[in-house]
Every structure is written in C-alpha cells, then in structure tokens.
Specification:
By secondary structure, the protein is of the alpha/beta class. It has a domain of 161 residues. It is built from 13 helices and 17 strands. The protein has a 15-stranded parallel sheet with strand order 1-2-3-4-5-6-7-9-11-12-13-14-15-16-17. It starts with 10 loop residues before the first helix and ends in a 13-residue tail after the last strand. This is F-box domain-containing protein.
Length: 476
Amino acid sequence: MSPSIRPRLTNQELRARAPALDAEIARARAYLDQALAEREMVKKDLEAITYPVLTLPVEITSQIFCWTLAKTGRIEFPHKIRLLGQPLHLGQICRLWRRIALSIPQLWNHMDFAIDFNLNQPQAPSASLIRTCLSRTASSPLSLFLDVTTHRTDNRTSWYAEPILDAFAPYSKTWENVGFCTSLNALSALSSIYKQLPRLKSLKLGLRDRKPATPITLFEEAPLLQRVHLIRLHSQTVTLPWSQLTILHIEDLSVGELWGILGLTPNLVSLIIGYVYGDTNLWSLPPHPHLQSIVSTTLSPATYQILPFLTVPRLRDLKLALFHPQNNIAQLSTHALDRLYIFVTHDRDGAWLQYLTTMPPSLRIAKIVLSSGCAVILRPLLSHLTDNPTLLPGLESLVITVLRQVREYAPVTALLLSNMLRTRRALGLRNFELISAGSLLDMRLDARMAGLVAEGMHIRVETQDKPHDDLNHPEF
C-alpha cells in the first residue's frame, strides 16, 4: 500500500505488524526454495532422458544427414538469406547434432545461389559466412552455382557477385561442378583459378551483360572437364578443352556459332541444343566431322533441320520439342535410332506427323506429348499407324500423353484405337499407354481390347486431371 494512502498505524500496531511481515517473508522464501529445488530435479530428469535417435552411431546419423540434406535446392535471394540453411539448422537441435554436422564435409560442399536484383531491396549473402562454410568442406569435391538476374544498368550485379566469387576462388582445386550466370566484370574475381581446376567435371557458364571482346580463358585447362552448358557463349567468346567434352548443352546462339562449336567437339556423346537463331544457309556450311554417339534434345524445328547435316551414325536417343512445327522436313540420316520423345504444342494442322515419317525403321520406343490444342491430331496419328505399316515398323512401345483436350472435336473412339492396336500388335507392338487430361474414349467399347491384353499386350488407357510431363526431364 502506498505510504500516501496507508492509514497511520499506532506504535503498538507497528510493533505487531513487523513479526507478521517476517513470517510472510519466511513462507515466500520457503516456497521459492521449494520451486528452485523442483526445477533442478526436472532439469536433471530431462537431461537423463535418452532419445532413441541420439543413441544411433555417429556414422549412421552422418549418413542420414547426407541423404536428407544433399542437393536440396537453390538458395533464393533476396527473399531470405538461407546460406546452406538446413545444415546450419542441424546445429540448433542439440550439441551432439551440431558436433556431427560440423564434422561432415559433404553437408557443406554444395552452394547454390539465385540472386534477383529486379526486386526493390536485394540482399547478398555474407562472404564471411561463405568462407566459414567452405572451410568445413576439408578437401571434398565442391559444387558451386551462382545465378544473378537483373535488368539494371548500374554496377550492382558485379558489386554483389564479386565478393561471392572471391570467396569461391581459393577453393578452385576442389571444384567438381560449378555454374556462373553473372556479369563479365564479376568473373574477373576468378582470375586466380586459371590452371587451378584439377577436379572440374561439369561447367555451366552464361553472361548477363555484353559479350567479351577477348575469349574467356579461365576454364581453358581442366583435364577432367567433360560436361558443359553454355548460354549465349560460343567458341569465339569462351575457350574450353573442346575435344575432351562428351556432354554439351548450348542455347541462345546463332546457327553459324553452333556449327563452329560442333566442329570442335568430335567426341560428344550427348548433345542438347536450345534456342538458335539466324538464317544461315545450311547447304553452305563446311563438311562436319563425325559425331559418333549423341543423345540430342532439340527445342525448335529450326534446330531439327541441322541434324540431317550432321554425321551421327550411332544416334540412339532423340528428344524433340516442336513449337509451331513446319512442313519442310529433311530426312534424318541414321539407322541406329532406338528411342524418341516428342513434345508438340501449337499445332492444329498435324504438321508434326511428318516428323515421324523421317524416323528410321530401327525406332523401338516412342513417347509423344500433345499439348495446347493438339489433341485434334490424335485421330490422324492413330489412323496413320493403322493404315501405314511402313510407318515406324519396328515400334515396340508407344506412350501418348494429351495435356489438354479440345472439346469441340469428336473424341477418339475405342474402335479406332483397338483397330490400331490390332494392326500394330501384328508388327510387334507390346506396350501402349494413352493418358489424357480429358475423356478421349467411349469406355463402353473397352472390351474390344481385352483380347489383346489376353495375348500379352500391355494396354493402359487412363484419364488424369493434370497429366504432367517435364520437358527438361531426361525421358530415357
């Protein structure tokens, strides 16, 4: 009670009040001592609890960490700074997990940064934190990726990217997989890596600004480099050990520049071609050396026109993405093609069907994805396969996915499908799958295919709400 409002006590009342207050204080102290003692007992009991996960041998816990955290995805900026966030979070669980996490180099040897400078307040990762994490990798192989996106005209791209690259550079002797899509000025921070890449096996390289006046030679000497992905770069802008490359992914360059690169890479096994531009006369190009064995991904019909001009005697796997297919199709000169994947979009006239006529009779496996208004050409496809036995005569497996059905056209009937399957079964077709986003078949007629199933043919006809096909996923 405040002294200003407390009633004034007499001397006798004050003498009686003092012992009462002492007694209350004693009781409060006793209660506090009891609560402190109980808290100490609870703490000891908690510390005595043995969680089953903490009884695992350190080797097993380490392996579980590697399985669950390895290559989990990109580190996005500027939304939140999550530099190797999951490994860092492990150290916040308990002292044992922190000690284990800090002792596993594999948890710290993968860094993937995506920095977007188009947002209002971009944040860059801490270079000191990067160096701390890299110091925990010991001598284990490193996978490092930096992708900077910006439409700015100032120097902020280099200003944010250079400290990161500067932190990466001292560890170049342990690089195994690296990728840099940034500015030319930022790459200058990697000048010390020249001839210091003894473990480099995979490289992705793209420039976000002007093309260099002189070739980029940082990766010229890398004895183990075999896999390369180039964006807007060609043989005149970057110097690489071309002859030892076996896997090449190139995009956003002219036809002439593409031809120049292919002339330097005779040992390719896998070739992925993205967007190309230009009206180079293919007949005017110089003769090309043999490309012995290629898995080719073509992202436009224009790129497909290049394949007949290449010597690819062992081409076995071909993947095409056809946007607005053209009618002027050249014959594909190979007799070893075994597997084909075609993704078709924006084609209501069925021009893409002519691509099938260019395929050699050796083709055994085909997967066709029809997207965005292409379901109308499913009927002609089934009719061609029924009426023309010389079309893909060796086909053993055919998978068709319709991503979006056009309702105004008549659906495919089971009678049409069963006639095609009966004809193709006689030619050797063993597996057929038709997956559609909308109803394509008169399901009452499915009994017509029962006899084929009884003969051992696998038939799958299914309707899904959202049949999904990732164009970038390797089908074979």
